[in-house]
């Protein structure tokens, strides 16, 4: 029986075979527990991030599928933010959710992923019903064989060059029929039920303070990656992930040697570093919730915005105070315990634990705003806080999403 991790979730694989019945790929599936036989997903983004982390951080893609390809369904957020995708393009087939076809941006987003080297799979029923016009032909067209449809071989829009994949093949007779119909790839229970993969039994070593500090540093436009090596070195598990990503074909040809963590970070770039660390936080072996993480980041940005209006408070210090002031809720531990071994100044420590001083008042304002205690704040202050909140929310979304354009340009000209 598969080993169930402390927080329950796991992954499963279902084989994909070719016409010669050779095992050439695997469909990646999320399971809320090691004993689950089907998906039960409340948060598609969190489930996808956890499945990705299991593959890339815990087990390893090579150990999981060898040289076979991995077929993954991605949430809309990853489709529109391709830097979120940590899988290597040369070994990955991506399939958008059905909800993606309600977005006007989907055809252009799929074309960008194809240009980056990913193969794209699209359901035949979607092609038959969507009003969207694809910019490029999908690499794979999936057909539910229970509908007894034949492969799409010719299409005025140029679909004919796509590989054809039959899914939900459940009996040997259906398998023979699908092969005679000319499907290139075949998937279904006839080969195997989804096989639940036990995650590694060791818990990934984490250092949440280092992760949050790295995120805070990377949010600074003047951040120098060369100065973060000592900080990253304090987090061995994350350092290994960064080194692996630096060798990804998505960042250029493999084979370039990397002698230092600084070289690895420069190759990965600050945008992808932010995504690696965020994914690591959200999918580590504790039940971290994505919504809580975003709220923490917005709170930190709002604190920095507020500090711009107060001469006696530094914005960088306010950012740290805002970031850490809800860490007890985020981590489920008393604040006194969390800050005990952190190198905070006395003023910051007293603000976090006892809400003392100017920084303590700043935390009280954040708490009052989030709790909706607007009457005590006054109309002018509430309007100011609303403005700071909107700025912080847009900022948090932007720096979690955007690549570092300047470093990308530097890599392209190096």
From TrEMBL:
Residue span(s) of domain HDOD: 204-390
Alphabetical list of InterPro entries matching this protein: EAL_sf (IPR035919), HDOD (IPR013976), RNase_Y/CdgJ (IPR052340)
Pfam family, one: HDOD
Domain of life: Bacteria
Protein name: HDOD domain-containing protein
Taxonomic classification: Bacteria, Pseudomonadati, Pseudomonadota, Gammaproteobacteria, Chromatiales
